[in-house]
């Protein structure tokens, strides 16, 4: 294995271990020792890539905005729904996403290592802006405002799902959230064509995996 | 002062001190010693009313569903909006409400002392059911489902407002949330008559205080 490839793998192993520890314990209670232990790398290897716990948190926050499940659709609003529904499907299974959610909501820590919230809001804002340019969105909608409402609503919905059902009902709660917000956003002719069913996320993920020639890492493992 | 009246005042003083400490530090970090200190009562007086820290948390959670700002309106949906908007106005200023929000979101503690979430969801559910009976609500709306969506959305929106603006924009964020959810719920003729302006909460509170012959405790003090 080439040296560069080995470095990429080490970095990834460290990030995944850090994500698992941050997702379980939160930032304050996480220790470099436990991350080293989980990653199975030397202290020197970890510090070569990340010079502090804060740098690890920043790495996790940057990592999670993966777009491998973004499939272009005829309707931009369907792409927005798909982003939310695939996230709902993946979140309970992927420590990298769980860690990003937990770190972003850390009121003490976010001043130190930042937050994924601005990136999430920007993603929604840009999809809605594109949807608006195509006439899919009602004229009075302000994409940035809707992005902020949806950011808050999504954070709360996933938190309630975690608290009351250990995320088991997240797909249903996210589907219901879209059904409650889309009528305020989508043009009527677009609204009726959107698929917001609870299993939408699972179907999109299956579709992407089937299409993909290079097999994707199994998120369930 | 009669003995009973003194007991009621002591109980209230203890609850308010407990709420302030829970709101600031969370349940795990709160100590009976600090609550005693803030309340200015004896240990015996506190334990006469509450036999544990968990009992104090339960007391705070029961206390906060005060309905002094519920004014009957022609439209039941306006009463729902008013409940949300007055809550948004009061939350940053009232430790009892802040404590209830924080305790209810305590993933470890809520098994011990419960959560205000079910009571909040029930409140929304019952108002929406009444609104539906009067034909204010679209026929496909399921009040319990909307109550769950709104519970999650409201929790997230207030959390984001706390994190990014120390609650200073909560009235605007709550107003935007209602504007994004009501089109999925309200009959069109009702929708156009609802007042969801950011200052709605402040206006309702001012109205109630002016009407009230017995002066209410100043929530800002």
Automatic annotation (TrEMBL), chains A, B:
Domain HTH tetR-type: 8-68
InterPro entries recorded: ArpA-like, DNA-bd_HTH_TetR-type_CS, Homeodomain-like_sf, HTH-type_TetR-like_transc_reg, HTH_TetR, Tet_transcr_reg_TetR-rel_C_sf
UniProt keyword list: DNA-binding, Transcription, Transcription regulation
Domain of life: Bacteria
Molecular function terms from GO: DNA-binding transcription factor activity; transcription cis-regulatory region binding
Pfam families listed in its UniProt record: TetR_N
DNA-binding region: 31-50
Official protein name in the record: Gamma-butyrolactone-binding protein
Biological source species: Streptomyces fodineus
């Amino acid at each position: 294995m080439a040296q560069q490839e080995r470095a990429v793998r080490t970095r990834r192993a460290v990030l995944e271990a850090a994500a698992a520890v941050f997702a379980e314990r939160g930032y304050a209670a996480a220790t470099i020792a436990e991350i080293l232990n989980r990653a199975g790398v030397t202290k020197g290897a970890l510090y070569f890539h990340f010079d502090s716990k804060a740098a690890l948190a920043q790495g996790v926050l940057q990592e999670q905005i993966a777009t491998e499940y973004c499939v272009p659709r005829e309707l931009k609003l369907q792409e927005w729904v798909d982003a939310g529904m695939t996230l709902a499907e993946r979140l309970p299974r992927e420590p990298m996403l769980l860690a990003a959610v937990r770190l972003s909501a850390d009121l003490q820590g976010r001043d130190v290592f930042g937050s994924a919230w601005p990136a999430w809001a920007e993603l929604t804002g840009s999809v809605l802006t594109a949807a608006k340019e195509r006439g899919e969105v009602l004229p009075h909608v302000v994409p940035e405002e809707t992005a902020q409402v949806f950011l808050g609503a999504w954070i709360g919905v996933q938190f309630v799902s975690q608290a009351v059902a250990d995320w088991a009902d997240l797909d249903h709660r996210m589907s219901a959230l879209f059904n409650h917000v889309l009528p305020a956003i989508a043009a009527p002719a677009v609204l009726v064509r959107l698929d917001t069913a609870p299993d939408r996320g699972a179907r999109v993920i299956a579709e992407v995996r089937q299409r993909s020639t290079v097999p994707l890492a199994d998120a369930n493992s």
